[in-house]
Amino acid sequence: MIKEFFFAIIVSLLMLFCIPSFAWASLAQELPPNAKKLTVYQGINLAWMEELFTLHLQAGENRLLLNQEAMEKGRVVIYPLQKGLQVKRLEARENHHQLLLEAENEGDYQLLAGFFVRGLSWEESYLGVLNEEEKTLYLIPTVHIDQKSDREFEQVTLQWLLGKPAIEVPLPRALAREKAMTFAAEEVPAHTPMEITVQQVSEYQLFALSGKVDLPARSTNTFFKEVRAFPFQEKYRFSDEELFRVITFKNTADPLPPGNLLTWDKKGNWCQSIAFPGARKNQEVELVFEGAQIQAKRREVAYRRLEVRFNDYREVVGFIAQKEVVFELENPTSTTATVEIEEHLPLEVATLPEDWTFKDGAAWKTVILSPGEKKEITLTYQFEEEV
């Protein structure tokens, strides 16, 4: 039922995803690449394109032409993948670039070309169904590749990097020879279902789409991942006189990038749109929703100054004050409810009751309410008050 529900949502959101390349010329004949890989960065409107070529070269010096479009506003890496081939230099001409190669013998050689492409970015979003009876959140992660460039990318291997690079324009990194040779040998049948895999790259995660895709110019391309189920725990949080519903779960599989989460109940009724914080593998996730079934009120019942503070000149500079706050909680539901009380405190707090915890500038206490139960919780604390 969950899959059918997601299918109905996906049909209404699905968009066509249908991507250019270096144009090498030898003896005035254009040579298409054997394989192409596009890595889209996050938050810098930039992607790195790698293209693999097989070139038949004569022994000695060979000259090839590179079209001007591929060279505009970016760096280029030319990397020979076999011994016996050297890149001598790249010369800029009026409307093209000329590449000089030195081949030890006549034959076929593989060459990797990499360059930046501007106008590409990606973001994650999620469709979610909250099954209250099962206490399970069903999530379908969705990645959106925004292609604002005028290029047409055709039959590329697509991947995207989670995490904004620390530098504005990341330095190009050529593939290692072994990896590049594997890249060259990849042949994916057209009927193969596309899957999204992830691997760790330094402090980043690299997501890759199996198979090859087309990305037309000025398009948004959406890819849906498999539905994932997360058993969750539920509690309520009363903070700054507002009551929230909080669900928590552990992500035991691949990382979940930050994004927007649209939620429904299992009957298909719209719930809320909230920010999804993201989660690495084995990380706890906390989702905060507005609205709750329990009731909570806060009252300040007492305030007094206990002590006067003086400076060296006997001038009054502050006080040690005491405040008493009462929280009225009620659980009108038929199930047990867990309530977290969060009371933000002044900067300088002298004392807190033993059954309260200080964390992130606030006093915290967890209260368990049985069905139909009412409770009053009192917080008394002392703090330093400046004049």
From TrEMBL:
Top-level taxonomic group: Bacteria
PANTHER family for the chain: DUF4139 DOMAIN-CONTAINING PROTEIN
Protein name, as recorded: DUF4139 domain-containing protein
Organism from which the protein derives: Thermatribacter velox
